[in-house]
């Protein structure tokens, strides 16, 4: 299809098309505004300078070099990179760890220094996450505490203030349960001692038996005759009247011997 003039649709003969240098010169020297003047670019100049300007014009759209997918005018690049980009690196304002901005919310869920509210809504109100247990155990005026003598049997629980009063008021009771516990401990220890003594006795017995076995080690043969019934029957029938043991030594470097047996007598 032959190209047509965009204005009156007349077909254009390519051979008759030429560059009108004089007209080009005229247009080159026309005064123009930046194509992005609507976005506020104040640049004006000659048409022939426009291309060079456009290349550097800060109203040109660009996409984030960090690949976050956001599009903005070039002039906002620095601001985007420093303040807005979800891929920019930041430091956690609580624990100072380096992280990617878009992961911040997730990090704050576990950040050890992040301030969390006291579950008892006490006066301190907010505590660093890593200190919460300590706060509840040692500081919080609204936390229910176990009596320090709980492991000795005191069942009292109460807030810090009540606990102070309890400990002050019940010193005698606490001494009593403490004494009882110590006595019980002694008894347990006695039982333990007994158990240990018995164990030692047993060990001694086992040791003696092991020594005994070692003394026996030497010219000793334990000859286990398997299939005895069968062999006895063979001996009776005269098929095989004598059987031989596996070879054994008289002692560690002694004679090698074998036993023989006639299960149904010798002839
Ligand atoms: Zn411009
Ligand atoms: Zn970005
Ligand atoms: Zn943190
Ligand atoms: Zn608290
Ligand atoms: Zn108590």
| Widest beta sheet: strand line-up | 1-2
First-last Cα distance: 129 Å
Helical content class: 25-40%
- Series of H and E elements: HEEHEEHEEHEEHEEHHHEEEE
Strand content: 5-15%
DSSP summary, beta strand count:
14
* Low-confidence runs of at least 5 consecutive residues: none
The main β sheet shows up as: 2 strands, antiparallel
Bound molecules: zinc ion
* Rg, alpha carbons: 51 Å
Structural class: alpha+beta
**Global morphology:** elongated
Mean pLDDT: 88
Total helical segments: 8
What does the model show?
This protein has helices spanning 21-28, 47-56, 77-84, 104-108, 132-139, 160-169, 171-216, 228-236, and strands at residues 31-33, 44-46, 61-63, 71-73, 89-91, 98-100, 115-117, 126-128, 145-146, 157-158, 243-244, 248-249, 256-257, 260-261. The chain starts with 20 loop residues before the first helix and ends in a 6-residue tail after the last strand. Strand 12 and strand 13 (256-257) form a beta hairpin. The protein is α+β, with helices and mostly antiparallel strands and 267 residues long. The strands form 7 sheets. A two-stranded antiparallel sheet has the order 1-2. The protein has a two-stranded antiparallel ribbon with strand order 3-4. It has a two-stranded antiparallel sheet with strand order 5-6. Its main location: cytoplasm. This is TRAF-type domain-containing protein. It holds the Pfam family zf-TRAF. One of its GO terms (molecular function) is zinc ion binding.
């Amino acid at each position: 299809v032959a190209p047509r003039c965009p204005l009156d649709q007349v077909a254009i003969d390519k051979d008759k098309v030429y560059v009108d240098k004089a007209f080009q010169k005229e247009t080159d020297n026309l005064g123009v505004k930046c194509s992005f003047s609507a976005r506020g670019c104040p640049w004006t100049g000659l048409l022939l300078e426009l291309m060079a300007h456009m290349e550097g014009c800060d109203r040109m759209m660009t996409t984030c070099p960090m690949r976050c997918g956001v599009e903005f005018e070039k002039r906002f690049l620095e601001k985007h990179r420093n303040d807005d980009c979800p891929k920019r690196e930041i430091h956690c304002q609580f624990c100072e760890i380096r992280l990617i901005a878009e992961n911040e919310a997730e990090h704050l869920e576990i950040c050890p220094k992040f301030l969390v509210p006291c579950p008892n809504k006490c006066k301190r109100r907010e505590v660093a996450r890593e200190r919460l247990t300590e706060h509840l155990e040692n500081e919080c005026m609204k936390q229910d505490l176990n009596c320090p003598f709980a492991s000795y049997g005191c069942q009292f629980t109460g807030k810090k203030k009540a606990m102070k009063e309890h400990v002050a008021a019940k010193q005698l009771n606490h001494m009593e349960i403490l004494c009882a516990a110590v006595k019980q401990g002694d008894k347990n220890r006695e039982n333990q001692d007994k158990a240990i003594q018995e164990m030692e006795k047993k060990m001694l017995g086992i040791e003696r038996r092991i020594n005994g076995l070692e003394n026996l080690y030497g010219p000793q043969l334990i000859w286990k005759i398997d299939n005895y019934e069968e062999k006895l029957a063979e001996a009776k029938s005269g098929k095989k009247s004598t059987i031989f043991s596996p070879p054994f030594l008289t002692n560690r470097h002694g004679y090698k011997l074998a036993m023989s047996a006639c299960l149904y007598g010798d002839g």
